[in-house]
Write a structure and sequence with these properties.
There is one protein chain. The chain is of the alpha+beta class. The chain contains eight helices and eleven strands. It has a six-stranded antiparallel sheet, covered by helices on one side. Strands 7-9-10 form a three-stranded antiparallel sheet. Strand 3 and strand 4 form a beta hairpin. About 9% of the residues have low confidence.
Length: 277
């Protein structure tokens, strides 16, 4: 079997190339190793598919965001702070006579109200409602807009991705490990409730100005219904598109195999490797 470290190095370099340049690079890097070439092409194809799935449905200039400045429940949407394959996230505020609150409001993309997407959105809401941990961004509210689009209201986390935070602060190994331990505790909390995150990566782990870790985005989480972390139920959430981030995805995610808590552990290992090297 090809060396995983070698695969990761070649894969990372190949991602920066395209077309004939990528093909020539793979020819040189793989030489006569057909198994290595096949593994790399599988990873690169999966990466390409994931990016295509997350691209906007319509090409050309981005249409005006009609949600900005509108009211969703008690929340006023003031600016966009993120977007993915399922929905868009806004910074939102609400104010009263004696209070002012901030939150992150996630709305399902218009036109994606299929049964599968609605089911995934509802699952994210159920998952977040059950997770109460200081290192997991908490759910505070949810509902549907006047035109029937579901939304979630979550704790707004003003933070920096884990790796960037550590590098910008020049943190030593012991401090990096302390922060990473908080990430592991948050993931362990989810696993104890039979929830697999499935998309652990630095951009989903923010560190606040006070040095607190917050785990975000359970949008593609899997609930191990009817099972245990070590003996999960069959994966009924698989679709034609395997939503993941190939750089951090476990081998079973890439290959379409059964997802267990070990899938998150693999992703944590990749993050730790990057954090320390």
């Amino acid at each position: 079997m090809p060396d995983p470290a070698r695969i990761e190095k070649i894969f990372g370099d190949a991602m920066d190339l395209a077309g004939d340049e990528r093909a020539a690079f793979l020819n040189a890097a793989c030489a006569d190793d057909a198994g290595l070439r096949q593994e790399l092409e599988s990873l690169l194809n999966a990466d390409s598919s994931a990016h295509k799935f997350l691209e906007p449905i319509a090409a050309g200039p981005e249409a005006p965001d009609t949600r900005l400045g509108t009211q969703v429940g008690a929340w006023h949407l003031t600016r966009k702070i993120g977007e993915g394959g399922m929905g868009r996230v806004y910074f939102a505020e609400r104010a009263g006579a004696a209070f002012h609150q901030q939150a992150a409001v996630k709305l399902l993309h218009a036109g994606l109200e299929s049964q599968e997407m609605l089911r995934r959105f509802e699952q994210e809401r159920r998952v977040l409602a059950e997770l109460e941990h200081p290192n997991i961004a908490r759910l505070t509210d949810g509902g549907a807009t006047a035109d029937g689009v579901p939304y979630l209201v979550m704790e707004y986390v003003d933070g920096t991705p884990l790796h960037r935070y550590c590098d910008s602060k020049g943190l030593q190994v012991s401090d990096r490990l302390r922060l990473f331990q908080e990430v592991c505790e948050a993931v362990q909390h989810a696993h104890r409730r039979l929830v697999v995150h499935r998309d652990l990566k630095p951009s989903n782990v923010l560190v606040t100005a006070t040095g607190t870790v917050k785990l975000l985005d359970f949008g593609i989480a899997k609930v191990l219904e009817g099972g245990t972390p070590h003996h999960p139920a069959p994966d009924h959430t698989a679709t034609a598109h395997r939503i993941m981030t190939p750089r951090y995805a476990s081998p079973e995610q890439i290959q379409g195999g059964a997802i267990t808590t070990a899938s998150d552990v693999y992703s944590l290992g990749v993050m730790l490797f990057e954090l320390l090297t």
